[in-house]
Amino acid sequence: MRTTGFLLLFLLMCSSCGGKKDKHKHEVENLLVEVDGNFLHKEDLQKVLPAGLSKDDSLLFAENYIRNWIEEVLLYDKAKANIPNNAEIETLVENYRKALIIHTYQQELINQKLSPNLPEQDITDFYEKNKSLFVLERPLIKGLFVKVPLGAPQLNEVRKWYKTETHEAVENLEKYSLQYAISYDYFYDKWVTVSDVLGKIPIKNEKPEEYIHANRHVELQDTAFYYFLNVADYRKKGDEEPYDFARTTAKDMLINLRKIDFIKGIKAGLYKEATRKDKIIYH
User: Fold this and answer.
1) Beta-bridge partner residues of 40
2) Alpha carbon distance 65, 62 (integer Å)
3) What single string gives the DSSP state of each residue in 223-276?
4) Are the beta carbons of 12 and 46 closer than 8 angstroms?
5) Does the reported pTM lie above 0.70?
6) Residue 178 or residue 84, greater confidence
7) What is the pLDDT of residues 153-162, one digit of tens each?
8) What is residue 36's three-state secondary structure?
């Protein structure tokens, strides 16, 4: 197989060689493998050969691909000879083909006729009318987190700044963190999962999420660091998802509904046109 592999690689590298040939001669010269009337040509292998492979990797890929192709041909022929109810399979194949063609056509229509851009007000209205669809499966938090070494300076100032959400306090803490903090996360302006925050602090409470909910100013320490967390807002599991957290999902849902309505309109139009032209005959 290794000798065959080198021959295959040589053929692949020489794909651009030669002048014009008639179709039959071209197919013969580019034939790699024949199994019971099934043919694998060099072009077939080139289409699936990943770009950027080394010579040895290309050779290995070619050998494996050809072996798999041969085995699949043999298995398919064996299966055809041992599956008696081919009519049922043909029906399934035809149904799948029909569904695939319809789906492809629908997607083309959607891409051509339906804009993916939605007015923000439409998304907001959909969210407001369907809040029952947007329920938190895990708690969320807005706030600020900072981690500093035990020996860091101005710790009393840090204790004041992290509890205060004013622009001045945040600015002071940001400047301080650039020099002394091990970690600094500002998320007053976005929702993050509580589990993400809990992964950063050494909390030992049996119910850490409830502890965070009840204690909006959290200060912890271990043998090396202080951990400061200010909880500006909190939404527990089972609450409605905040709009800015649910917006992407709401937009996707609204787009899908518009796609469904669009396709229904296309079907209704085709039915109306067929009825007008007497194409539908009931027996």
Assistant:
1) 33
2) 5
3) SSEEEEEEEEEEE-TTSBPPHHHHHHHHHHHHHHHHHHHHHHHHHHHHHHHHHH
4) yes
5) no
6) 178
7) 999 999 999 9
8) coil
